[in-house]
Each structure stands twice: as structure tokens, then as C-alpha cells.
Amino acid sequence: MSAPTITLSQAVSLMRALGSPPVGNPGAIREHAAALRRAADVLDGAAGQLGSCVHVGGYLGPVARRHEATTDHETRMLHERIARLRQLAARLDGEANALEARQNTWRSRFAGKAAALPGNLGHQALNYLGWRLP
Asked: What single-letter DSSP state applies at residue 20?
């Protein structure tokens, strides 16, 4: 008994059942997150320098107090922004990990389906749909 012949149309239907592959580049997302962390580190150094400028030696009175209050406020705001950059970097790392996991799952499911098809029919179906392996 011979194996049933599967047409490209049937292979395309099998691939459609997988859903389209998750699109994105986890490595590029991680590089962006690393760049945000590096920027946060640079800003953290600047915030430290700014913090050392809060107290004006030899300068007293209302103007000095306003300067100290303003500089202190700006330093705190900068630290808040730095923390937000680091949070964003962490969130991007999480998104990259999740995307990579979805891509690995999709590739594994595709490999299982493609292995059941004769020849290169799985990849032909992928090309027909205009999809690329993630």
C-alpha cells in the first residue's frame, strides 16, 4: 500500500493551522535593552556628580537654599528616570525571552508538521504563504 499523496494545497492548510510564525528579533531587542542599561549607568554617574553640587560651600541665604532645593529635586527626578530606564530594559529582556520561547515553540511545531510531509513540501508551503522561519 503506498503512502497517500499530499498536495501543496493540503500542506498549505497544515501550515495555516500552525498560525503565522512569531515575528521579531530577540537578539536585537536584548541589544536595545543593554543600550538602555548602559545609558542608565552613564546617567547614574551624572546624577552622582549633580548630587555633589547640591551644597554650595561658602554660599548662604535664600538663594543658596533655593539652589539646594532645586538641585536636590532635579537629582531625585534624574534617579527616578534612571530607575524607569532600567525597568524598561528589564521589560524588554522579558519580552525578548517570551518572543524567543514563542519562536522556539513554533519552530518545533513546524518541524513536526514538516517531517510528516514528503520532501520539501513543508518549506514550499511556508514560501507559498510568504512566511519565514523565525
From this structure: P
- CA–centroid distance for 23 within its chain: 12
Q: Using pLDDT thresholds of 50, 70 and 90, give the confidence band for residue 56.
A: low
Q: Which residues of 29-44 are buried (b: 16+ CB within 10 A; e: fewer)?
A: bbebbeebbeebeebe
Q: Is the pTM of this model over 0.90?
A: no
| pLDDT value at residue 57 | 67
